[in-house]
Amino acid sequence: MPNDAYITLKLPPMPYYIAAGLTEYIPGEQHPSRQNLGVFDLLWVIKGTLYIGEEDKEWEVNAGETLLLMPDRYHYSAKPCERETAFYWIHFDFKGEWAQHEADSASFPLPMRQAWENPYLIQLPQYAAPPEFKLAERHLSQLLACSVEHRRSVYWQEQQLFIELLGLLEERRDRSNSDSPAMKLASRTEAYIRQHYQSELTNAALAEAFHFHPNYIVRCMKEIYHCSPMEYLHQYRLEQAKLLLVKTEWSIAVIADQTGFRHAPYFSNCFKAYTGTSPLRYRKQFKP
Q1: Rounded mean pLDDT of 175-180?
Q2: Domain that holds residue 60
Q3: Which of 120, 147, 169 is the last residue of a domain?
Q4: Residues with Cβ within 8 Å of residue 57, at least 6 apart in sequence
Q5: Which of 209, 273, 218 is nearest to 241 (CA)?
Q6: pTM, to two decimals
Q7: Which CATH number do you get for residue 278?
Q8: DSSP of 168-225, one letter per residue?
Q9: Distance (Å, rounded) from C-alpha 258 to C-alpha 171?
Q10: Given the DSSP bridges, would you call strands 74-77 and 34-35 parallel, antiparallel or unpaired?
């Protein structure tokens, strides 16, 4: 039974709840075949076993397990139910970028946080047994109750319950034990850069902080973030400078110093190469 596929949603935008329901089958009944449904179909089996396939993969989804079906695939019953089976289903939409991939492969490079953005990657296992399934059941029953209410009165409650369900479903494993060595070190390096970007940082300083050879740290960062530590540092400093130009009246020299560039002419040259405009022109576009 395949269980190592993940679906990664690149935020923003956020996934959008559409509808939910509860389906019950007696022995001999089966899930209907569907093609190009156009929305994600998230199944939560609460009783029995659902035999279902998507393209060339098939699953036996037991009570306490979930399956996420893709919006652009062919879904079919692998065989009829052998005993009474019940499952909640949730239809949701997502207008952003998403990708399906194996557990050990990266669907997107992890994003650099831009000055005006807060990007995040939701990573959902396609087939899973969420450890907090009982809590999920309570959320699902509340969603079902909302479905018969006037939409305007329950809209925000529905969206909140749905997002909380995705939070329960998102990979809950202990990442410190399960992430690859490259992911662990790249994440630690990113956090260190964010904490110390105002200081003089070098590959040698990172190597001393983490007790790894600098070439290995560079390799891990390039694998996960698609850039070297110094490239990440340079871009992060410039993003912080963009915020300071808009949120403060500090001089260019002060901002250069506060973001680790130290010298205003060097900072201005780097900023123009990065944004296509000078720091002063960048600031002026936000002034009334």
Answers
A1: 55
A2: 5-169
A3: 169
A4: 2, 5
A5: 273
A6: 0.72
A7: 1.10.10.60
A8: HHS--S-HHHHS-HHHHHHHHHHHHHHHHTTS---HHHHHHHHTS-HHHHHHHHHHHH
A9: 37
A10: antiparallel
